[in-house]
## 1
Amino acid sequence: MVSVKDETMPIRSSEDVVRVRQAARELALAQGLSLVDQTKIVTAASELARNTLDHGGGGTVRLEALNSETRRGVRLTFEDQGPGIPDLDLALTDGYTTGGGLGLGLSGAKRLSNEFEIFSRIGEGTRVMIARWK
């Protein structure tokens, strides 16, 4: 797997969340993802960027365009140094929320992605990686 584009963006404000959405859409379009797949990765990116800001106190997202011999795709990795997630299984349950929302952020992002990985350590932060393939 070769990363042909690799960019890291800060997530420190609501304006940054909008910029992450725009960058994810541009990258998905450049990689040739369908409109449906573009919408899925942008929606997931929006949820995860908002979580990074609201629950992690801000952080970064790394956007990568991926090419292999057989497929093209987009990988986004969100990282923060926030409080961490005490119970990942619970946090990935539809309807579970600590922020008063619908509780579909993490579980929704997982459903919208072809690949989903999450790592969190209490007091150290959280890293979420999603990928969408053409």
## 2
Amino acid sequence: MKNDTTLIILKIILSILFLLCLFKMPYGYYQATRFIGMVGFALFAYFEYERNKSLNGTAIIYLALALLFQPFIKIALGRTIWNIADVVVSIGLIISIFWKPRKVIKRSSGR
């Protein structure tokens, strides 16, 4: 499960990077954080897709976050909304480390 450990470490690093965005930082820091976030969320989406062999809700959320944080076409939300987004995403990443999805048991209809 080396891959899971790497993903956990990446989630922690991203959480810290997003929380540091709450402080006054040079503009280059925000650019780098957006790029790292885009790459990280794209990787999370890819590994989630590979794990389930389908595009599930979690993979779609990661793809949406990759698009939100991509640095090429800027989404102007304002500093306050970006700060809220950074905190919400950081909390979501930390929760996703401990959240274990339940396995769905498919029952046959017996027919």
## 3
Amino acid sequence: MKNKNQDKIKISFPQRLISPIKHFLETELLKSKRAKKNLKKEDPFSDEKRVLENSFEEDLDEQIGHFETEVKAKFLQKRIVQLRKSLTRIRLGKYGLCESCGKMIDTDRLAINPSATTCVKCEKEKEQ
């Protein structure tokens, strides 16, 4: 639950620090979008030359390949959403503040994961 005093406190990073972070996040977003697009090309189910009458081994390889691309695509989609959230928080002037509790996210956490939108404590609570 947010404390009334937290809404009054305006904490923000200086523009000289935010600018490279924003650039990094935008670059990662483009990379993730490209990777997701390229991943769809790797899906055995999207191959136009795919044969429907496969041996058991070939069918198994296709199924595993399809499953792997689906898992990777879901991971990339989550990453894209997280990067967009972080960029939105920069535009709103809320970058570095936990979206759950409103407290400042540890700078070490942001250095490791610039797209983090929650503090370690709230992230642990969310995982439980």
